[in-house]
Amino acid sequence: MTDSLMETKDVKDLLMKVSGLGDGGGDLRLKRIVHRVVSDLFRTIEEFDVQPDEFWTAMSYLTRVGQSNEVGLLVPGLGLETFLDMRLDQAERKAGLEGGTPRTIEGPLWLAGAPLSQGEARLDDGTEPGEVLFMQGQVRDVDGKPVAGAVIDVWHANAKGGYSGFDPSQSRYNLRRRIETDAEGRYRFRSILPNGYACPPDGPTQQLLDALGRHGHRPAHIHFFVVAQGFRKLTTQINIDGDEYLHDDFAFATRDGLIPEVKRVTDAAAIHARGLNAPYA
Ligand code: MBD
Ligand code: FE
């Protein structure tokens, strides 16, 4: 004999009414999901003897997450975005669709409409302090065949970890470009070396991380979408090797296969000779 309220007819009836599962109308899948989620909350409240003041503290926390536009930050911080990726990986393994560059999370900071160019681009607006970075590559299908006309949408932070469109000190679409691959599937770009992102120190995401004894840092990284006719879209990132948070990412996005070798070149003339010297090339 337990005194669990969850097991009582009154609570079971309440959950049926809350979710609409007892009635005919509406969306059955949604009803079942709402039933499960609310049941799990009831169960958590019971198991941890959550008090009303604690409950309302949590509700005002969620309100602040929305008000400060941090839903997209809390989600990766709680590993939810990584879990969705793990599910996609699992589904692909089951379907025999393995191979190629691994996916990892998108995060909350992509913007639509970055300038599009052919084959190459300079990403920084020329005012950004930081080490010059060149990256080049080739889009290939899983059989190794080059994909011409694929579009690489690339975005990353500046040397302070800030993203244009969110950091008001940066110009529009700074460090964001779309590049269409050439006939051999190749692309290249010049930019500046990004630094890692950190959650806003006074925001609700960092507040929860503090209470969990966690930090809110990401290692330095560069985001990519890769899109081509007839292919699934790839969402991925690369990490900059050597970063202190490389394997301690608050957003759980680092994966094997996404940490390319970084070669440091000190000859300024050789750097200049690689081209893409004009901002907004
Ligand atoms: C980022 O730059 C990011 O990529 C993620 C996943 C979360 C917060 C900031
Ligand atoms: Fe990012």
How do the strands and helices of this protein lay out in sequence?
Elements (H helix, E strand, L loop, with lengths): L8 H11 L8 H20 L4 H16 L3 H7 L2 H15 L21 E3 L1 E3 L9 E7 L12 E6 L19 E5 L5 E7 L11 H8 L9 E7 L6 E6 L28 H6 L8
Parallel strand pairs: 1-5, 2-6
Antiparallel strand pairs: 3-6, 4-5, 4-7, 7-8
Helix pairs in contact: 1-2
The protein binds 3-methylcatechol and fe (iii) ion (FE).
Describe the structure in brief.
This protein is α/β, with parallel strands linked by helices.
Explain the overall architecture.
By secondary structure, the chain is of the alpha/beta class. The protein folds into two domains: 46 residues, no CATH class; 197 residues, Aromatic compound dioxygenase (Protocatechuate 3,4-Dioxygenase, subunit A, Sandwich). It is built from seven helices and eight strands, in the order αααααββββββαββα. The strands form two sheets. It has a five-stranded mixed β-sheet, with no helix packed on it. It has a three-stranded mixed β-sheet with strand order 2-6-3, with no helix packed on it. β7 and β8 form a beta hairpin. α1 crosses α2. The longest helix has 20 residues. It is elongated. It starts with 8 loop residues before the first helix and ends in an 8-residue tail after the last helix. Bound molecules: 3-methylcatechol and fe (iii) ion. The site of 3-methylcatechol (MBD) has 10 residues, from α4.
